[in-house]
## 1
Amino acid sequence: MASDATPDVQTASGSVVAAEAAHFGKLAADWWNPHGSSAMLHRLNPARLGFLREAIDTHWHGAGTGFTPLAGRTALDVGCGAGLLAEPLARLGATVTGVDAAPENIGAARAHAEAQGLAVEYIAGGVEAVAGRQFDLVTSLEVIEHVADPAAFVAGLAGALAPGGLMVVSTPNRTPLSRLAMITLAEGVGAIPRGTHDWNKFLTPDELTGLLKAQGLTIGAVRGLAFSPRHGFTISDDTRLDYLVTASRG
């Protein structure tokens, strides 16, 4: 899947891989173009925002009817790109911090948020950039497959999650379907920029939930992101292509 993250180059500093950050930094100027290099993320966003809203309402016992269910809460989006998720979180009422390894993405994110009249704190760096801070909601969508050390990355996410908080992570599954759809086809025809993914770095749901449990988190929902030509991306029980996981800290 196209990534919200800006990964690193094959030098790694903390969670960040420099080559990956450079790859995504080159896409910064085009991030908000729904027909550009990040078009796949724009197509993904409605489904994953619907999932996120449902997870928020379930976790904090919301009615699902208010416009700002995150009012009075803090949110951290790790691998925020140019703000495709951070801005909706701000509109849901959260005080939002976005972190991304590519300074170019942070520049684009700040400019776009300012133009929208949204106050979002953006920081260039990896999850280490917010060490010592905690947030009610921690999100990291399509990012963990690009980091230097997934276990250390999850530890960083867990460290940023406040007691009683909610975490949402998404990533491609390591299956024959994801290799065919996301690398052979999508990257092959340019729907996703070439070189975005390394299939060997994809995590299965069991692997990702194992890393979350190792940090003392409780697993909630595990749902798939499926695609059909007729309906586009939808939340599904089929996790073979891509999936989302919620986790919480008691």
## 2
Amino acid sequence: MFKQMQNVDSAFRYIRVISLVVIAGAIILSLFVIYRSFELVKSKHEKVYVLVNGKALEAYSSERKENIPVEARDHITMFHRWFFTLSPDDKSIEANISRALYLCDESAKKQYDDLREASYYNNIISSNISQTIRIDSVALDMNASPIAFLCYAVQTLTRPTSILTRSLITAGQLREVSRSENNSHGFLIERWNIVENKDLSVNPR
């Protein structure tokens, strides 16, 4: 009789241990499934599709701090392309300058006013000159606040009889602002100035 009671007691202990193991396993499995579900939902939210020329391209979102150098360089590049890409058409010049001025403070407006007073844009139009720019590099000082930069570029002025190539170096600072339709990167160039702009070569056409 005593031996039977011991067997029953052992069986109950085994059943209890097995039950606890099964319950613990079920809890761990449930927590793992919940965690994986949240991770899956989060990854789906980070994935977006961009429509380009009728094709859906997959893109992923990321933290802004990871992309600051990339966005900063693109912001500086866009500003210089719009400010220095000119064609002998007053409406085209106005459109490009307007886009550029959204990306910079009054320092760019001052440069524009000075060039306009010097009849630079009138000469572009009257002489049928096309001006383009190639950005060679953009150096950023990420340790400075606001971010300091130097932009190295080459200007090409195509005239009816010649092609003039000029070096261009500009400097300024970048301050973070709210993103908008006219300022997609959320930066504003401040204290922008032209450090160097000199002739490199003149080639006949």
